[in-house]
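I wish you would study the pair of lines that follows with an eye to the fold:

===
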Amino acid sequence: MHAYRSHTCAALTSANVGDTVRLSGWVHRVRDHGGVMFIDLRDHYGMTQVLCDPDSPVFADVEKVRSEWCVRIDGEVKARDASLVNPKIPTGEIEVFVRDMEVLGDAGELPLMVFGDQEYPEETRLTYRYLDLRREKMQANMKLRSDVVASLRKRMWDQEFREYQTPIITASSPEGARDFLVPSRLHPGKFYALPQAPQQFKQLLMVSGFDKYFQIAPCFRDEDPRADRSPTDFYQLDLEMSFVTQQDVFDTIQPVLTGVFEEFGGGKKVDQTWEQISYRDAALWYGSDKPDLRNPIKMQVVSEHFAGSGFAIFAKLLEQDGTEIRAIPAPKGGSRKFCDRMNAYAQKEGLPGMGYIFWREKTADSVAQELGIPVKEAQAKLKSGEVEGGMEAAGPLAKNIGPERTEAIRQQLGLGVGDAAFFLGGKPKTFEAIAGRARNVIGAELGLTDEDRYAFAWIVDFPIYERDEETGKIDFEHNPFSMPQGGMEALQGDPLEVLGYQYDLACNGYELVSGAIRNHRPEIMFKAFEIAGYDESEVRKRFGGMVNAFQYGAPPHGGCAAGIDRIVMLLANEANIREVILFPMNQRAEDLMMNAPSEPTSDQLMELGLRVIPQD
């Protein structure tokens, strides 16, 4: 028999009754039933119930074991009584009577329990991550991650891509975040950098004649942490292709991701048609370039209905250049209580409030108030038809702008009795993000968001440039290496009108993919940077390797990268990315388990020619 096990803790069934077996694993739970000891023995694969009574030669030893001891047991497989069968686990029809036991590793007092669903502070979980990872949910998450990566690899190979590894130690290259720098021992005073992405290398592979590249690539960025972003490193499915258009990239990655979400999505609906939405429309309709399309609410501009209206705040606002009023429709949100709650939400987000109108059946109270008569008299007038019933608009805004404008808004938004609309105004960039979050809250609270769906959309037509409102300077708003739509000709006109062949893929409110058709023509690249204030020498200094390569017959090429951590986070139905990373950093970018970052020794600093300057 094997030194540690003849079977895993998920392998035994009623077909093994009578067999002598050997199992190894962790003591998940111990139960003493009147002198008979029951142990749930757990390994990576599952759970087996073992029992021991005073007839066993190792009964005294079994009585000593505690949760999370690692043990090996030998015993006989027995059938459970029919009334004790557990159909929830594969081994639920049997149990193993212990004849021998060896303690492979005992455990001290546990800082967190593996058994049960207790919640522990993140600091505790990350400090003792090896214990946290023993928990059933974490085991499932990490197995899911491994399976997703394997599936992604297979699907890419099936599309005739090959996997190539790019360098981990390289030159510093601005990719939109801070680099992690690595000092060079052989070249004192100089530094390597960990790659923020394999961007330049994968483009150089296309110049080198490799037609289809992919890699499960580690990326390193010194970023501020968020719930959906790791502060140090992450993994992405990175791909690049030669002689392709934007649509070719879409047609390549869509079946890969659709297949993965269908395979691991737990039966949720997966969109088969992926809408293409311009960046500007996404900002207008959803207040975000990563919209959650499970929520059907689409915001609209309603400025014309407030210009010159009795609502002075919006009317005066619209007299300023670049301002507008947007409406967030709220089907089924037509109650004062809900409207007041959303107004309070806006105030919590830092706005003075959020105007609203809601539509309801005309009531005796409102008629009485309008006509200045008693409620009973108003009821009589409604009943007799002297006062026409039907729908009415309510809320402070409705009173200020009057029935005609209110009705025009209702018709534009397609709303009716029992519905509401919320309004925000100003320069769009000052309120778009809050409007987008409010849209999400409204969709969730009113039950409009389809939770049983993965909804995908390509966000396209990103503007390449923006103007700094304070300095008036033109700078890059998005990826400077995207090919401008229209090429060199597009760069001769208004920079703010130049769009790039750049695209993101949004799913359920998260950005899953980002990519572009690359600017592979040096003369177009130099012109694009010149508009943003960077001369040719600066471009060559920063990106010399790539620019030089493009002078030797670079093919048109493009690609994208899909965030593996976020994909798994969505599939695992987790809200925090650290739940799907084996050994993540905390919110302060600290590894509490390995005590990183740590102070270097004097010898290390001396060897590298470095000195640490104390921070005040």
User: Anything to note?
Assistant: The CA atoms of residues 469 and 475 lie 11 Å apart. The mean pLDDT is 93.
